[in-house]
Each structure stands twice: as structure tokens, then as C-alpha cells.
Automatic annotation (TrEMBL):
InterPro entries: Bacilysin_exporter_BacE_put, MFS, MFS_trans_sf. GO terms for molecular function: transmembrane transporter activity. It comes from the Bacteria. Its main location: membrane. It comes from Kitasatospora gansuensis. GO terms for cellular component: plasma membrane. The keyword Amino-acid biosynthesis does not apply. It is a multi-pass membrane protein. It is found in: Cell membrane. This is MFS family permease.
């Protein structure tokens, strides 16, 4: 039975411990992703309110993710993740109770999602920085792909679970499952014993460490240009999934059941992408990641232009492959080319410039769609997103970055000073 497990789980015991704790939590997140928009709609919220609640959960990233990055490079990363899990358990549990008891209102959801998002802002940089401390360098891509596989599988199983729970117990029942998943994750993190990062505790001031983290970003053209491309994807393209897609489904595709089918199809494609990434050994991984991001940026056009729900589902499965490839290759590139003592700070800038800016898109998507129309807004999203990804692919440093996952050193010097001046060619 043990031989059926992937090699990274058999050989990396600390990663196996982390993976076991995160698996249910990631499934719960996928359930919540489907349930939350319909939770807002169930209490009388509008499309703008869906965006507002989603933005409340992501806005704290703008305020706290850089703090989280410095703390994660300064203190034990798995302890920061443990505290974050406990706070998210409390916040999501409160949302579930309010919904189940029928007293929830949109302002309640906004406040509790803001608390949830604050804890999440500390979790993400710590989680990215923790992985190289529990898995060997040559197994990093496999570990990222396996984690992505759980996320993708959750997109297949999660919508079905969410749809059933929303139908049987309302959105509150689905969000209660997500709350429990954080408690499970916290229990496993209590038992985790990762090795310390190099120079994990620094004597520098907060601002000094923050500036040092930014130096690692700006001195690598492939990093800051990648963050710029992801900013466009998160701010312009992803609101089609989190705001406009559910609204269109509510109007034309049968509400939560229809949108769950689309999300499940995307998840099937994502599973295929993660399985591919697990075995893939590209000579130039970041170039492939940029091409995958361009395909992923077609999601809004697919939702708006496809003639039927079935066609949307099939095409979303294709973009699911691309999204999985992109994130596995991007995360592995950061983990193998950024010094581990600065990795969480670099990751925090990544979160700030991508997910942190996403609330802007969530807040604007509903009003823009109301003003110019739902489908024209979706078409415009892809018209902006795809060129941004292709511009990233044109950056020479992106096309040249090698695959170092097989023999990664613990630290890598920054690019020469002139490298920051390389423009897209």
C-alpha cells in the first residue's frame, strides 16, 4: 500500500505531515469558493454585494501580506500558519452560524471575511516559504504539483459537495465544513517539525527587511515582470470567475448547480494539468508558465461567448490545465531561485501584487457589468489579460530561466544590476 504513494510522500516525512493537514483544508476552501457567492445572494445581496464580500476577504492582503512576509522570514513559519488556521476557523465558523440561524446580513459577511482575509494574508507567505524546509530541492516541483493536485481535485469534489450542502443545508452548511477543515489543519501543524531556515531570525528592522525583500524582487527581471502579469490576471480576469460567472449562472444556468458544473469541469482540467506538471521536466519552465497564463486568461471570454453551459464547461477544463501548469512552475521557480531566507518576503510581494490587488477588480466588475453589460465586460477582460501574459513571455529573462529543480542551491545571487533594465523584446 505504501508503494502506491507518490515518492515525495514516501521519502519526505515532514512534507507528508504537512500534506495530510492541508488536504482537507484545501478541499474546504474549494467548497467555500462555490458557496460564498450564493451565501451573499441568499441574504438578499446583489452582484455588487458579491464583489464587496469577496473584496473584504482579499483586501487585508494589501495591508498585511508584507508584514506576514517579514514575520515568516523572521520567525517559525509553521507557527504563523497555525495561528492563521485558528483565526480562520473562528471567522468561518461564525459566518456559518449566522447563515444557519438566519440572522446573517451582508455587513456581517463583510466584517467576518475581513477577519478571515487578515489571517489568510499571514498564512500564504509562510506556506510558500515553508515548503523548501520540509522537502528536498529535487522534489520541490513534485511537492507543488501534488499540492496543486489536491486543490484541483477539490475543484471536482468541492462543487459537488458544495452544491449538495447548499441544497440540503444552505450555504451555511457548506461554510461550516470549511471551518472544520481549518481545525484539522491546525492539528497537523502542531506536530510539524521543519528545519529552520537559513538566518531565519534577523537583527534588522522591519523596514530594512522589507527593503531587502524588495531588492530580491526588483533585481530579477523574471520576478517583477511575472508579478506584473499576474496582477493583470488577478485584477482583470479572475473577477469573471468570482463575480460575473456566478451572476450569469444565476440568470441563465440554474444557479449554484450550473456554476458547480463549470467549476467541476475546470477542476478536472486542473487535475490533468497537475498530473502533467508532476512528471514534466521543461528546460525553460517559466516560458511554459507564461504561455499557460495566456491560455488561462481566456476564461472570461469563454464564459461570455460560449453558446451553452456544456461548451463553457469543456473549454474551462482546457484553461484548468493551463492554470495548474502556471502555478506549479511559477511557485517552483521562486522556491529554487530565491534564497530561502528571503523567500517569504518575495512571496508576500507576489501576494500583494496579485491577490492583494484583486479586490479592486471584484469591486469594479459588478458596477461595470451593470453599466456596459455582462458579456461586453467579460470580452474586455480577456482582451486585456491575454496580451499582458504574452508580453511577459517576451521578456528575455523569462525565456532563459533554466530548470534548477534537480540541483538547486540554497541561495542564488541576484541578476547583474543591468538585468533590471531589460525590457520586453
Amino acid at each position: 500500500m505504501k508503494q502506491l504513494l507518490p515518492a515525495v510522500l514516501r521519502e519526505e516525512r515532514q512534507f507528508a505531515q504537512l500534506f495530510a493537514g492541508q488536504a482537507l483544508s484545501l478541499l474546504g476552501d474549494r467548497v467555500a469558493m462555490v458557496a460564498l457567492p450564493f451565501a451573499v445572494l441568499s441574504v438578499g445581496g446583489s452582484a455588487a454585494d458579491v464583489g464587496l464580500v469577496g473584496a473584504a476577504g482579499l483586501l487585508p492582503t494589501l495591508l498585511f501580506t508584507l508584514v506576514g512576509g517579514v514575520w515568516a522570514d523572521r520567525f517559525r513559519r509553521h507557527r504563523i500558519m497555525l495561528i492563521s488556521d485558528l483565526v480562520r476557523f473562528a471567522a468561518q465558523g461564525a459566518v456559518a452560524v449566522l447563515l444557519i440561524t438566519g440572522v446573517a446580513e451582508v455587513p456581517h459577511l463583510v466584517v467576518l471575511m475581513a477577519v478571515f482575509g487578515t489571517a489568510d494574508a499571514f498564512f500564504m507567505p509562510a506556506a510558500t516559504g515553508l515548503l523548501p524546509l520540509v522537502v528536498s530541492p529535487e522534489r520541490l516541483r513534485e511537492a507543488n504539483a501534488l499540492r496543486g493536485l489536491v486543490l484541483s481535485s477539490g475543484m471536482v469534489v468541492g462543487p459537488a459537495v458544495a452544491g449538495a450542502l447548499v441544497w440540503l443545508a444552505g450555504p451555511g452548511g457548506a461554510l461550516a465544513l470549511d471551518a472544520v477543515s481549518f481545525a484539522v489543519s491546525a492539528a497537523f501543524l502542531l506536530r510539524l517539525r521543519p528545519r529552520p531556515a537559513v538566518d531565519e531570525v534577523s537583527g534588522g528592522s522591519f523596514l530594512e527587511e522589507l527593503r531587502d525583500g524588495w531588492r530580491h524582487v526588483r533585481s530579477r527581471t523574471w520576478v517583477w515582470s511575472g508579478m506584473a502579469a499576474m496582477s493583470v490576471y488577478h485584477v482583470v480576469v479572475l473577477p469573471s470567475i468570482f463575480v460575473l460567472g456566478p451572476v450569469l449562472s444565476e440568470q441563465e444556468w440554474g444557479g449554484a448547480a450550473g456554476w458547480s458544473a463549470v467549476t467541476a469541469a475546470f477542476g478536472i482540467g486542473s487535475v490533468a494539468g497537475d498530473l502533467w506538471a508532476y512528471r514534466l521536466r521543461p528546460a525553460r519552465p517559466l516560458a511554459l508558465a507564461a504561455a499557460a497564463l495566456a491560455v488561462a486568461s481566456c476564461q472570461a471570454l469563454i464564459i461570455g461567448a460560449a453558446p451553452s453551459l456544456a461548451v463553457v464547461a469543456v473549454l474551462e477544463a482546457v484553461t484548468g490545465v493551463a492554470v495548474s501548469l502556471f502555478f506549479v512552475l511559477w511557485e517552483t521557480s521562486l522556491q529554487t531561485h530565491i534564497p530561502e531566507q528571503a523567500l517569504s518576503r518575495v512571496s508576500s510581494y507576489d501576494n500583494l501584487l496579485s491577490a492583494g490587488l484583486m479586490p479592486l477588480g471584484l469591486l469594479v466588475a459588478g458596477p461595470v457589468a451593470a453599466a456596459v453589460g455582462l458579456r461586453p465586460t467579460l470580452y474586455a477582460m480577456t482582451a486585456i489579460g491575454v496580451p499582458a501574459a504574452l508580453l511577459w513571455l517576451c521578456v528575455p529573462a523569462v525565456r532563459r530561466l533554466p530548470d534548477r529543480a534537480e540541483a538547486a542551491a540554497p541561495a542564488e545571487p541576484a541578476e547583474p544590476a543591468g538585468a533590471t533594465e531589460v525590457a520586453p523584446a
